[in-house]
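pinging the channel bc i need a second pair of eyes. not urgent but kinda urgent?? the chain im working w is below, pasted from the shared doc
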Amino acid sequence: MNKRPLAVTMVSWLFIAAGAIGLAYHVTEISPQQPLQAESVWILLLRLLAIVCGVFMLWGANWARWLALAWMAFHVLLSFSHSLHQVLVHGLLFVLIAYILFRPEARAYFRRGETRDV
């Protein structure tokens, strides 16, 4: 049995935590006085997507690591509308996450997940 690498576990929980914290934060912005707008729905869905990526990476789903990387790349692109500092931080996180999720032991772990139904 191919055991989940610790780094993959940490990245998975990072996505779960980031999604849950972001979801909790943005849900508080919803109120009867403030109707739910399309932008808010997209933000909530993106936060939920981070949680889904983290959970399924823990289960070894190969598609989840690709989706998590795409999620992070999207955040790098969003950072360009803010500051150079955010671009650098998100860019470095993207590189670090990609490195962790595509190391040989992580590839072996996710390859194992492809052979079973999730």
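so Helices lie at 6-27, 38-58, 62-79, 84-101, 104-114. and The CA atoms of residues 9 and 107 lie 13 Å apart. — does that match what u expected or am i reading it wrong
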